[in-house]
Design a protein that fits this description.
By secondary structure, this protein is mainly alpha-helical. It contains 4 helices and 2 strands, in the order ββαααα. It folds into 2 domains: about 35 residues, no CATH class; about 45 residues, no CATH class.
């Protein structure tokens, strides 16, 4: 995982917007950001790993979303912008 400060420049929100200033793991932990590395595999074992993390953390709900131009058609660009603002 790599974390960095957002550069706040205008433009396509899907671009990295990398300021060049990395955020250390220490800083992330200090503000409560947790992360796991769970590789996606064709057999779907990753889902079991996600479920194990959820159980360990006592998470009750989660969402799985698939965003594609094919699936959303003309709404694709609007939805992508909405996710960026969230």
């Amino acid at each position: 995982m790599r974390a960095y400060y957002f550069d706040n420049r205008e433009g396509d929100q899907r671009l990295p917007h990398d300021s060049g200033r990395e955020v250390s793991g220490e800083v992330l932990r200090s503000i409560g950001v947790l992360h796991w590395h769970i590789p996606i595999d064709a057999e779907g074992r990753y889902e079991q790993e996600v479920a194990a993390v959820a159980k360990e953390r006592d998470y009750k709900n989660h969402d799985v979303i698939a965003i594609s131009k094919e699936g959303l058609g003309d709404e694709y660009e609007t939805k992508i912008k909405n996710f960026y603002h969230e």
